[in-house]
Amino acid sequence: MTPDPQGHARGSAPLTGREPLFIVWNQGSGSRDAEVIRSTIRRVLDEAGRTYELIAVDDGRKLAAVARRAVETARQRGGVVVACGGDGTLNAVAQAVLGSGVPFGIVPQGTFNYFGRAYGIPQDTEIATRGLLNAHVEPVQVGMLNNRIFLVNASLGLYPQLLEDREAYKRRYGRSRLVALWSCIVTLLRRGHRRLAIQLDSAEVQRVMRTPTLVVGNNALQLRQIGIPEADDIERGKLVAMTPRPVGTLALYGLLLRGLLSRLGEAENVISFPFERMTVQLGRRLRRHDIKVAMDGEVCWMRAPLEFRVSPQALMLLVPAEEHRVEAA
Questions:
Q1: Average per-residue pLDDT for the chain
Q2: 64: left (phi > 0), else alpha (psi -120 to 50), else beta?
């Protein structure tokens, strides 16, 4: 399978509908009952007479290794690797799949499901599983941050800290949008408006600035929902960078509220622009240290400089037939 210059794969064979499915399932992902998910997937696939292996993972630290083994088995048997879980799970499995020549399916279990919804894949476990049975393959754009992929977005600065604090609050108080909002407010109150000194260098933009956070999006649906005008550029083979201008804590509250009301793109204090490749240099204080970054909701540490780019390889995604699709809204 050879990618073209825009990252789209050529020469992928159509599915027969008989390929074995190797389902990597993160049992700790999402808020739904694990036994219901297990029994639903098994019932749908058993009724269809489809060959499959449901590989349950109870420790997220094992996901990458399990996904690599699933990809190797799928390559040997002409199968499909399916990720079942939230955005972090989809990311970990996609990282193993990308460039392998193996098709990639998903059964989403996350809160927002931006990646799945962008391609009509519902969050309902039964419908999503049925959608695997008669799906077709479409090449899907993937973002890269250094050597790691992201499907929805990647970020540094304040946003990764918001994500870490949000997960801690969800573990303590439960998963809800109200809990997520409250955790964001507490993080802003505690951390104020600490700013990063960064240098952005791309074909489109060269800029030195101080900002609390930088977010790079790869999901047109998410960007449309928060009102970013460059959302359509994702579908033209670009990524979109978003960063607030230097503002005080009160203005950051306003930006947060606009984001929740899907009006972030209307804010005069937000800078956004499309690009294919961009290098981010950090100020002298951080240049020799690792910096906290987030990719699809999962936080890790990376050494600068940071390079954001469109992957030259596409992810070969199983997209359901029309009767199993949901409206991307």
A1: 84
A2: alpha
Instruction: Looking at the structure, tell me whether residues 237 and 304 fall in a common domain.
Output: yes
- Cβ 306 vs Cβ 145: under 8 Å: yes
* Structural domains counted in the chain: 2
C-alpha dihedral (327, 63, 170, 157), degrees to nearest 10: -90
Same domain, 137 and 76: yes
> Does 274 share its domain with 208?
yes
Q: Do 252 and 279 share a domain, yes or no?
A: yes
pLDDT value of residue 147: 92
Q: What gap in Å lies between CA 317 and CA 139, rounded to an integer?
A: 6
Q: pLDDT of 106-121, one tens digit each?
A: 999 977 889 999 999 9
> In 3D, which of 44, 112, 32, 47 has the Cα closest to residue 82?
44
Contact 240, 231 (CB under 8 A): yes
Residues 6+ apart with CB under 8 A from 328: 117, 118, 119, 120, 221
8-state DSSP, 323: G
- Which stretches of the chain are DSSP H helices? 34-48, 63-77, 87-97, 114-118, 125-133, 158-173, 177-191, 220-225, 249-260, 284-287
Does the CA dihedral 205-206-207-211 come out positive or negative?
A: positive
Taking a C-beta distance cutoff of 8 angstroms, is the pair 181, 126 a contact?
no
Domain span holding position 84: 21-142+313-324
DSSP of 192-261: TT--EEEEEEESS-EEEEEESEEEEE--HHHHHHTT-GGGGGGGGT-EEEEEE-S--HHHHHHHHHHHHT
Distance, first Cα to last Cα, the chain? 32
Cα 279 off chain centre by: 20
Higher pLDDT, 19 or 204: 19
| Domain contains 210 | yes
Cα dihedral 225, 152, 155, 63 sign: positive
Total H helices, total E strands in the chain: 10, 20
pLDDT-derived band at 261 (thresholds 50, 70, 90) equals very low
